[in-house]
Amino acid sequence: MGASGEARGAARRRGRGSRRRDHALSRGSRPAALTRAYLGLGSNLGDRRALLRQAVEALDWGDVSVVARSRVYETTPVGGPDGQPEFLNQVIAVETALDARGLWERCSAVEASLGRSREHETRWGPRAIDIDVLTFGDDVVAEPDLEIPHPRIGERAFVLVPLAEIAPELEVGSLGTVADLARGLGADGSVRPVGD
Questions:
Q1: 130 catalytic residue (yes or no)
Q2: Is residue 82 annotated as part of the catalytic site, yes or no?
Q3: Is 123 tagged catalytic?
Q4: Which domain holds residue 68?
């Protein structure tokens, strides 16, 4: 292996965190301002746990850094066709130098890379992977294809229960804190932790 090959190998061994810091600092003397965002992940097709893990790994590079993650929960599907498989859901916190649309585009690209095809799926139906931008700092986005905070965040136990695990004091617009919204949700067994 030549000198440049050895350097690339050493960089790979240092891990993603080292590359991320180098990348963020390479733009100038000050790192870019970072925004904390929360993402909801779900899967009910294929190897659900592996798909969640692969999605988190794929999101965690460059201008996006995963800084917290909830446990994985098995959840009863909400809406969509009857008889679909149970979902595995997880919420992660990321810090990013991307804007809200850039983060949403990254999420969409990761979904596509893991086999999601929006053209052939039923609304709220089964899917290999689903990644929603739940919140993006204090930003409010109201565009035809992107709404932040997520418009149904206050109604969904499969989002609120894992989100309350990592960000209980997070204010969701005028709805209140995540802890307040999540209180009592999932007590019916529709949201069950399945591990770390």
A1: yes
A2: no
A3: no
A4: 32-195
Better pLDDT: 123 or 1: 123
pTM attached to this predicted model: 0.80
pLDDT in tens, 92-103: 999 999 999 999
pLDDT at 18: 36
- What is the sign, positive or negative, of the torsion defined by CA atoms of 188, 191, 195, 196? negative
127 noted as active-site residue: yes
Q: Say if residue 4 is in the same domain as residue 56.
A: no
How far apart are the C-alpha atoms of 188 and 192, rounded to whole Å? 10
> How many structural domains is the chain composed of?
2
Residue 104: CATH number of its domain: 3.30.70.560
Choose, from 48, 69, 106, 127, the residue flagged as catalytic. 127
Point out the catalytic residue in the list 48, 69, 106, 132: 132
Q: What is the DSSP string of 35-56?
A: EEEEEEEEE-SSSHHHHHHHHH
